[in-house]
Amino acid sequence: MSEPSAQPDAERTDLPHAERADLIVIGAGPGGLAAAARAAACGISVVLLDEHRLPGGQIFRRPLALPAPAVPDYARSIQALYRGDAVPDLSYRPDHTVWAISGDNVVYAAGPEGTRRLTAPHIVLATGAYEWPVPMPGWTLPGVMTAGGAQSLLKASGRVAGQRVLVAGAGPLILQAAAQLAEAGAQVVAVLDAAPAAEWWASAARILAHPSLAGEGLSLLARLRAKRVPVKRGWTVVQMLGTEAVAGALVAPVGADGRARRDVGEFIQVDAVCLGFGLIPSVELAALRGCALDFAPALGVWGVRRDPGMATSAAGVYAVGDGAAVHGARRAVIEGRIAGLAVAQSLGRTGGRDAAREMAALHKGLARLRPLDRYLASAFRPRTGLLDLAEDGVVVCRCEDVTARTVRNEIGNGARTLHEVKTSCRAGMGNCQGRNCMPTIARMLAAATGESPGTFGYPKPRPPVRPCGATGLSLAPASPSGNTR
Amino acid sequence: MTRVLINGAAFEAAAGDTVAAALIAAGRKKFRLNAKGAPRGLYCGIGVCQECLVVVNGEANVRACMRAIEPDMRIDVP
Questions:
Q1: A405 contacts: CB under 8 Å, gap ≥ 6
Q2: What CATH number does residue B55 fall under?
Q3: Coil, strand or helix: which one is B7?
Q4: Which one, A6, A150, A482, B65, has least CB within 10 Å?
């Protein structure tokens, strides 16, 4: 890594020229597309960077070879971009992985031709979310994957993860994944939701106030019934078995204390297990850029602090969608439009329309989604009782192969911060930069100390936050802005 | 269809598939062995976890879930 330097990144002459735009949007999911479309409609020059080959994010992932289907009504504003229509003033760059942002808004994106530097006074972060890791015996076996990963595989290529599939976790996404897998021809042996029935129905009741969401939920349950997929509430998977790949799973009821009752577990023969216990916002670029983060205790995750216009604490940087706080695609589209419009307002280029009135209407739209926010907060609440499943021999940090025993030993030896655990046993130092183990380790620290997992901070990210190749690394920003902790 | 070579054996994958989708279609779930020799496969499926790294045309550490297949691509797995 280069030595820190006081010189602004955008003005460095030892590096390739940084391409300029009015706005750089990072992520082409619902939030990013909505922001890009709204800003470009005002004649603002937008570069839209996305890691995937097609726009739409994980929720609207689709096969490369087929035309784009119609998006749901709530996402109408992104249909043109999703379809791949050329939009004036907008340059869409698929296959570009953003791996760093400097303190002066230089964005480093690795694409097919190596790393490009781009800069803009405004940046919208729309980085999406990833699945909660719940370490348990056998979870590293091939054939065990996230429910979202199985959905992406299915949506993009029509491939089902296995023939006999167990889907386990909590919340709405596992129901969706199970329905899609069953309809694509997999035998879904069961969907297990760790929330006990009473809690499950209490959560579900929160969205009954919203007619279209209630309808969507009921139709999902009907689709599962039609495929004879049993939904067991208050059950979880506790172990995966197999040598070269998963061949079976142990499932068990969840007790009133939130812990799995392994003593009354059952064995199920499967060749794939899909896990989905909730989502974690991908805040690493925001953290790298120096945006303030907040810990959401109800969800047990870090999110990006924002004002009502989606502006973060870093000048010119906005954050929208699940990458800032997990609220789903409906909200992401509205937040994206708010951010796109806010950028237009700050440039004084709202195109003659009544921006204030539009902004008020968008905020009304957000208010209408509050039942969904409350539902997700309840369905995705942390399942701390399942931390017991991370028995001593279970790998917690998949990249560096660090077990729960090692982490607990380090905590026993006095490690009291994520950083101390990391430096003492290498957990979180691997390729994924701790995305998959730090949430678990924060909970292990919380369990040992009685503190909130938020106490232990968000680990300071370092560039590259994603793989960038050796040539990319030689361009690494000299002065990435530091994060809070 | 697009022909790829999985450990040298020809396999017809669907054009536009990712390397991960082609491997799973070919019945391969084990994508690599970690430093301790333990098998690993597709996990997050969205480019975050770095578990699905495979060797493609001799290039190591390629995320199978992100890379698109190309005609006659050589994919090597354990």
A1: A392, A393
A2: 3.10.20.30
A3: coil
A4: A6
